[in-house]
Amino acid sequence: MASYPAGFKYTKDHEWVELSGDRGKVGITDYAQQQLGDVVYVELPDVGATLKQGQSFGTIESVKAVSELYAPVSGQVVEVNTSLKEKPEVVNADPHSNWMIVVKLTNPGEAGALLDAAQYQDLIK
Amino acid sequence: MEQATEAPLKKTPLNARHRASGAKMVPFCGWDMPVEYSGIVAEHMAVRTRAGVFDVSHMGQIEIAGKDALAAVQRLSCNDAAKLAVGQAQYSGLLTPQGTFIDDLLVYRLAPAHFLLVVNASHIRHDYEWIAEQIKPAGDAVAVDASSRYALIAVQGPAALEVAQPLTGVELGALKYYWFAHGEVASVRATISRTGYTGEDGFEIFVPPQSADRVWQALLESGRAADVIPCGLGARDTLRLEAAMRLHGNDIDETRSALEADLGWIVGWKKDDFIGAAALRDQKANGVKQKIVGFEMVDRGIARQGYPASIDGRNVGVVTSGTQTPYLKKAIGMAYLPIAHTAVGTEFDVNIRGRSARARVVPMPFYKRAR
Question: Which one of A34, A37, A41 has the shortest CB-CB distance to B302?
Fold first, then answer.
């Protein structure tokens, strides 16, 4: 069983966000990577892109299928994990450490609507 | 990631085993099937380097028997079944009068006037109805949908022979490719066929459904030392694509003829009339407008089924299969293109979700095992 960090917030679309001040680090959950299977491509936005909560910010592609990535919070992309371009498989190996983007939040209040670790684990039961 | 739920899914005799073993199950053509056990890449590599075991009991079996069975099969199936000795099998198509694919299948000659047709899971009923209708005027021949009488287990990979041999008295090494024998596997009555859908050496083993679990477990146990693993439909798809084997519903269907699919080698050109013969002979004489090609991506990305293919910005074709192959570690696929653009080396563009990515026509198969 993977553990779902208590410090993260989660979406129903299986992304996580780790909030720290006005920044949010975003990735996908262990459940998501299990469902996807072997990840072969991660397409991410450029630094500077503006995201709205719930909006697609990229795609993740496994051998089997393509899935959209959805922004857990609104804001501007300030960092992109470009190493995923060369080594997308690390998302399978350690999804809760291998973040995809860092967002500078424009509406921190939105995070209240996200799930906590217990609620998320109920969702995927 | 949502799955539509409709009619209750059918279960193979190994369903409980898959679920108990923690396989990821998905609906496939009306069946509740394992898509992966340990992951598509791990399973794919196991089959290329050691061996894997697959439950393919969802496949259909239609038997045709009677004094005129050969004539019936010759009319229904495009390959030349008269070339089959008893104990031999061939790949073939069940074609429309237009020469397009109702289904593709394997034809086994069980006895001089008794044939077994192994068809795709999603088409069993449709194939059976078509066959039953078409053989009415054939004289003394009857078709039976025998699918429920067979479980089908495939063991595929370079180690398949050493894994299966200890379980049977049949001398498997003497069985040639596309031949089969009757015997016992793990003390279960079985028909063992040296065939498969992975591009590797291997066997497909027909057993009574009630004994499927015994044979499944025996194969895995026998393969334990060689690290043989159970595999799902995900790896089956990537393996068959590397081997450039067509998938009905993707690469061939009722809109694609045997010649467009570059499967002229399964057409019995010298035999008498068969369904689709006139259309195919016409295409052979006059040429086809489109043809299937194998391709590799030049740009990053995976071209998947249904993505448009274009040349000089003009939409001219379509991708029918595509994946990132675990063994060759390339994005490959098959597509239909206008005949003028099918030469090896030709470049074309695939529209990957709004982005144009370059692809290049390459020879098929993408992967060929060393013999």
Answer: A41
